[in-house]
Amino acid sequence: MFTTEYDVIVVGAGHAGSEAAAAAANMGSKTLLITMNLQNIAQMSCNPAMGGIAKGQIVREIDALGGYSGIVTDNSAIQFKMLNKSKGPAMWSPRAQSDRMRFAEEWRLMLERTESLDFYQEMVRGLIIEGGKIKGVKTSLGLEIRSKTVVLTNGTFLNGLIHIGDKNFGGGRAGEKAATGITEELVALGFESGRMKTGTPPRVDGRSLDYSKMIIQPGDEHPDKFSYLKATKPLKEQRACHMTYTSPEVHDLLREGFDRSPMFNGRIKSIGPRYCPSIEDKINRFADKDRHQLFVEPEGWNTVEVYVNGFSTSLPEDVQFKALKSVAGFENVKFFRPGYAIEYDYFPPTQLKHTLETKIVDGLFFAGQINGTTGYEEAASQGLMAGINAALKVQERDEFILKRNEAYIGVLIDDLITKGTEEPYRMFTSRAEYRTLLRQDNADFRLTPVGYELGLASEERLRAMEDKKQKSEAFIQFFRETSVKPEEINPILEEKKSSTVKQQDKMFKIFARPNISMDDMRKVASVSEYISEHDLNKDVLEQTEVQVKYAGYINKEKSNADKLNNLERVKIPADFEYDGLTNLSMEARQKLSKIRPVNLSQASRISGVSPSDISVMLVYLNR
Amino acid sequence: MIPNDTIVALATPSGAGAISVIRVSGKEAISICEPLFKSIRNKKLTKQKSHTIHLGHIVDENRYLDEVLVSVFKGPHSYTGENTIEISCHGSVYIQQQIIQLLLRNGCRNANAGEFTLRAFLNGKLDLSQAEAVADLIASDSEASHQLAMQQMRGGFSNEIKNLREELLNFASLIELELDFAEEDVEFADRTQFKTLVERIQFVLKRLIDSFAVGNVIKNGIPVAIVGEPNVGKSTLLNALLNEERAIVSDIAGTTRDTIEDELIIDGIGFRFIDTAGIRDTKDVVESIGIQKTFEKIEQAQVVIYLIDSLQLTDEHLTLLKTEIGKIKNKYPQKPLIIVANKIDKLASSHIEQLQAEIENIHLLSAKENIGVDSLKEKLVSFVNTGALRNNETIITNTRHYDALLKALEEIDKVHYGLEAGLSGDLMAIDIRQALFHFGEITGEITTDDLLGNIFANFCIGK
């Protein structure tokens, strides 16, 4: 059935697999996407939403590079919010509620429209490896499909084990089989594997809920969108979410089931994410809190299915049901399905290179939860990077690596391969040293040029970026050069309780004041004339505002980042011998030989490597 | 990586030697020193030729700190290959610190261990065979030096620094909390709370900086632990060592100390005897051999004197002692260890020979009769002269901490301004992180993982 050799085979079609397949195929690689069930491409296994703080920035980065997640999200969104709008621009974070079924459909249709991408439905149960190099995959039917590279994106499917109360059964997701064979084969090859845990809340029938007892949570009045492309449009209509609270009574009911909770009776031993705790974990660890928020999120435009965000649980289904019934608005609740916890295999990501290629098997790439991460956005971005690098490897081109000061994606991958992770890894803005540089408004400036060079971002994308850049730069220059008279600006300043000026001054200085916004500046005649004359759109105005108001901070972070680049330029040869270097601490030697950092900057981020170890390395590397 | 900042450090061993040399190296070395040096002939340092020496005073605004000789070396014709100034000043710890602190405030950075040599190497001034030696030097300034530094601080200061860091970390966590977890149902600190916290941090930082500036914080001298069983004569030995030296100790210019009795200077080098109060009060010492307690003392010391009572030695006891000495050597192979047999005046010469045969390099002494006390002092001094000890540790610690605190305060002042101006947390976080980084220079490292860990431990996060 498969006679030709593929360039790239992607195993798994979740968020990571779908982005990987799209990227590789769009870069001209002959690509095959294999998944256990082609009806389940790009499932939102957990909450029906994309983006959020730090994650929204990642989606924008994926889009800027030419990935699909942003477009798919825009086309299937039912609600949009820009979070953290009251904070500085580095914190503005787009988030969308999605129509789960349309999201998956959009993805499938976009993949089907992608040239040189083939599909096949079957379970991959083994890899073909010859002389330390990947040569293809083996399926459960015994087929051998040859390829130059393979990207594994197995999600929670590797030896997945689902827990509900004291029951457990194999499965990769509710109602889907687990995948077996791959972990065992990789461990035999010398890979280290571990177990992680995650959970999901019950889904319920929206018709059984009383929304009048809840607080309505509408989307933004003027919704934005994810993709930088003009092809997608902001929502005209939106669906609201709702919020309600648990109560002491609910907590008591949940506690009754603790003795049957796999979390507490020791049945689940693996580590779950601390920032996404189950409801039982929350009431156990924070016993003094007498209520917790629950977000009631519709699963789509038309479906009645509702996602109960905040109620992730693996307690017995009867306990889940009884407790949820005591929540305001849920008195008559009908379950679609109970919440559950799932344990699955992952491979500590310190076994990877920055390209997400494994150090052990040449041509084999890992992306997504298999690397110990959590979240659609984290998975999708890794898939994109693995797909890009697999294609580059086949084409014998230079690898593609994003630095920590270039993208959250760079922070994510560098953290994973340098520090590893003890719990499912999720992105936070605080993980980035230079978050003021990594904003959602400038992901296109940062990444579209490289995306275009890779052959991934379209010409149209590049032109749109250049246009925005050129226009905003010119507008900033206008503020630098143009003065405003006191009689014109002072009424505006008085209104904002900002101190007035005595003589005419450059507008840049006034605009840079903390409480003065673009809306205020637009009241100056010359500004509004400039805007209409140059036909400046919302994106240009936003970009200009950010760059004027935060210039000092942006420049400070830039110069801090440049210092880091000093160490980045000191490369460490791949075969560097640490063993003989008795001047390095024992711990540093062990960690460095294991992780094998590519430059001194990466080495300095490994825990247990001290500044003096770095200086010692500097001496040896200058030899 | 070519460093582009200017570094300063003491180039000669600290202590009360007659002359000390402070070395400044870097692109700005000469221009930083110029306004701080008042030549007796009104010469400008930047106008001077390389390899020239000038007499004058180091002045801090209008205050004369010391009369000095300043040598000018222009890169690449200097030890480091960079512009270099060497200030030869009088050998008082107080004066050295004042001059170094002045340089720090004017744009220099404290040199790390071996950094002059590292720069010399990077600038191609050293040959390849010297690289090993440079690496050795740097490696000796490891994590342990942070610990040592904290231990050198007097009484409450090290605790105060730890607490301050803790508070800063909490503050940073509170800021990060409202950034990364804005959507969560947790109570965020309001701006007034933040302001109170920042002002407290400012206050404590300023007080600490003042204390560092007058040299109150650091205990001077190389820490020496005298260990041994109870009643072997530790206090007698200490008294014998201290006896005629006390007067000199109290003579050090400008140093203010609460107690001086445990510090003494031998041949211009300061030594400090650790935890001697405990040692003197024999009731305080555990009655067993108490290896654990012994280790704790050794941990804090750079030199160990292991004292035994030669009169009490039975064969069985001797075996026990040898095991214990073996343990110490095993655990601290780098630390100079002197085994001293006390009360030898009462010992028959045949026993002395036996003792010398049993324990290698044993030092014979009678504290009471003052036998072997001087040679013990000579031994202590020889460790410094042969390079087994670095005795400018304290001055490095002191100025390094001063530098770090100064920079931390600068950042905290910016945060304070940010709070007043109503800045968003993500922008203030830039300065707070920088402040935490400077604290890390005193206490060890801090990563963003600490912040997240702190948040998860204290707040109920997550949907």
Structure keywords:
heterodimer, A: 623 residues, alpha+beta, Elongation Factor Tu (Ef-tu), domain 3, Arc Repressor Mutant, subunit A, DNA polymerase, domain 1, seven-stranded mixed beta sheet, six-stranded antiparallel beta sheet, 21 helices, globular, B: 463 residues, alpha/beta, Gyrase A, domain 2, Four Helix Bundle (Hemerythrin (Met), subunit A), Rossmann fold, six-stranded mixed beta sheet, 17 helices
Outline:
With 623 residues, chain A is an alpha+beta fold. Chain A has 21 helices and 22 strands.
What this model shows, in words?
The complex is a heterodimer of chains A (623) and B (463). Chain A has 623 residues and is an alpha+beta fold. Among the domains of chain A are: 205-338, Elongation Factor Tu (Ef-tu), domain 3; 472-559, Arc Repressor Mutant, subunit A (Orthogonal Bundle), CATH 1.10.10; 570-622, GidA associated domain, C-terminal subdomain (DNA polymerase, domain 1). Chain A is 36% helix and 17% strand. Chain A has 21 helices and 22 strands. In chain A, the strands form five sheets. In chain A, strands 1, 2, 6, 7, 8, 9 and 20 form a seven-stranded mixed sheet that branches. A six-stranded antiparallel sheet of chain A has the order 14-15-16-17-13-18, with no helix packed on it. In chain A, strands 11-10-19-12 form a four-stranded antiparallel sheet, with no helix packed on it. Chain A is globular. Chain B has helices at 29-33, 93-105, 115-122, 131-139, 143-152, 155-180, 191-213, 234-242, 246-249, 276-280, 291-300, 315-331, 349-358, 373-385, 393-420, 425-443, 448-458, and strands at residues 7-10, 19-25, 37-39, 52-60, 63-73, 84-90, 109-110, 222-227, 263-266, 269-273, 303-309, 337-342, 363-364. In chain B, helix 6 (155-180) packs antiparallel against helix 16 and helix 6 packs across helix 17 (448-458). With 463 residues, chain B is an alpha/beta fold. Residues 244-261 and 276-289 of chain B have low confidence and may be disordered. At the A-B interface, helix 18 and helix 21 of A face helix 3, helix 4, helix 6, helix 16 and helix 17 of B.
